UniProtKB/TrEMBL annotation:
The keyword Cytoplasm applies. Associates with the EF-Tu.GDP complex and induces the exchange of GDP to GTP. It remains bound to the aminoacyl-tRNA.EF-Tu.GTP complex up to the GTP hydrolysis stage on the ribosome. Residues 70-273 form the Translation elongation factor EFTs/EF1B dimerisation domain. Residues 79-82 are annotated as: Involved in Mg(2+) ion dislocation from EF-Tu. SUPFAM superfamilies: Elongation factor Ts (EF-Ts), dimerisation domain (SSF54713), UBA-like (SSF46934). Keywords: Cytoplasm, Elongation factor, Protein biosynthesis. This is Elongation factor Ts. GO terms for cellular component: cytoplasm. InterPro entries: EF-Ts_dimer_sf (IPR036402), Transl_elong_EFTs/EF1B (IPR001816), Transl_elong_EFTs/EF1B_dimer (IPR014039), Transl_elong_Ts_CS (IPR018101), UBA-like_sf (IPR009060). One of its GO terms (molecular function) is translation elongation factor activity. It comes from Convivina intestini. Belongs to the EF-Ts family. It is found in: Cytoplasm.
Amino acid sequence: MAVTAKLVKELRDKTSVGMMDAKKALVEAEGDIEKAIDLLREKGMAKAAKKGDRVAAEGMTYVATDGNKGAVIELNSETDFVAGNAEFNDLLLAVTNAIVTYEPKDVEEALQLKIDESGQTVNDKIINVSQITGEKITLRRFAVVNKTDDQTFGAYSHMAGSISALVVLDGGNEQTARDVAMHVAAISPKYVSDDQVPADVVAKEKEVQMASEDLNGKPDNIKEKMVQGRIKKFLADITLLDQPFVKNGDQTVAEFVAANNGKVVSFVRYQVGDGIEKQTTDLAEEVAKQLGK
């Protein structure tokens, strides 16, 4: 049986192993997915294979910089308890450092990075920690950021790594950049400035505001003027530069950075579990299943 991309994806979904490991197992199993799972289990991936259909929506983010390179990552586990243990934290640090060092282009490439002198890969390390903790662990995403010698990084993690932010400034200084990263973590802007907001986002907001009940019956010119004011406020709420600075609400982020001889270039913000649909478990139902009722 031919080993197709669809089969590889199915095996990965069931086992959470890397693409190359899945492909090798399928080739060895001649395309038999159940046999491939058994082969992966024989190679020490048994626990990981059993957890393939479970959702890892907890975990931690982490941010690290090294010279002109930086990275933000999100590493997920099934519970926040595991996310707080030493093995998970050591894994988080090791994976982040590998990503900063080698700058992989995507998660697939990151999983194949050599993480130590023994030749162990990031994927091997994740599986090993998954076996120790008894939970599914996944590298969900990462962003690699580069800067010039004239630019400044600001890194900040909030609430024990539940949120991390990395900011790049033109000029400025490390404390200013870190303060902006703290603001990004706390306030969660979507864009640096209003000229970065996609036209369709603005158009959608205008459509919503034009349909507001409190504008019913008002002349079109008045309605248009009021909506334009609301759009301006909407943009100020979602763009970093126009937001009131979290440590001093009397000035905007743009004013704060300019006062410290800097200009915001970019930011990355990761929050654990963003966009993941978490599983909800009915304890009574789970016990009944185990008892065969």
